[in-house]
Amino acid sequence: MISVDGTARAALAPAAALFRSLGDSTRLAIVRRLAETGEARVVDLVADLGLAQSTVSDPLPACATASWWTGGPRVASRSTR
């Protein structure tokens, strides 16, 4: 078994957030849509993906933590990172 100390765990946190953000089909659909268009309001994502507003808004913080995009619940833009 591999032991991970606190420093290594902190260094791996961004990668862990990235993988968590892609572990859900809704989040993956949102990221794909943003990759195609670069920017969208939540209302646009709702219309394009055929999902409820809460279904689109709820995953935004997890994906923002993973640096997939910036912005708040009103506007999401693909990260330039």
Question: What does this protein structure show overall?
Answer:
The model has no long low-confidence stretch (mean pLDDT 77). The chain has a domain of 51 residues: Arc Repressor Mutant, subunit A, CATH 1.10.10. It has five helices and three strands. Strands 1-3-2 form a three-stranded antiparallel sheet. Helices cover 59% and strands 11% of the residues. A hairpin with a 4-residue loop joins strand 2 and strand 3. The protein is mainly α.
Q: Give the SSE string.
A: HHEHHHEE
Fraction of residues in H or I helices: 55-70%
Number of helices: 5
The gyration radius over C-alpha positions equals 14 Å
Question: Biggest β-sheet, characterized?
Answer: 3 strands, antiparallel
- General shape: elongated
Proper CATH architecture of the domain at 24-74? Orthogonal Bundle
Strand order of the largest sheet: 1-3-2
- State the name of the first-level CATH class of the domain at 24-74: Mainly Alpha
Category from helices, strands and their pairing: mainly alpha
Number of DSSP-assigned strands: 3
Q: Estimate what percentage of residues fall within beta strands.
A: 5-15%
- Assign the CATH topology of the domain at 24-74: Arc Repressor Mutant, subunit A
Distance between the termini: 33 Å
> Averaging pLDDT over every residue, what do you get?
77
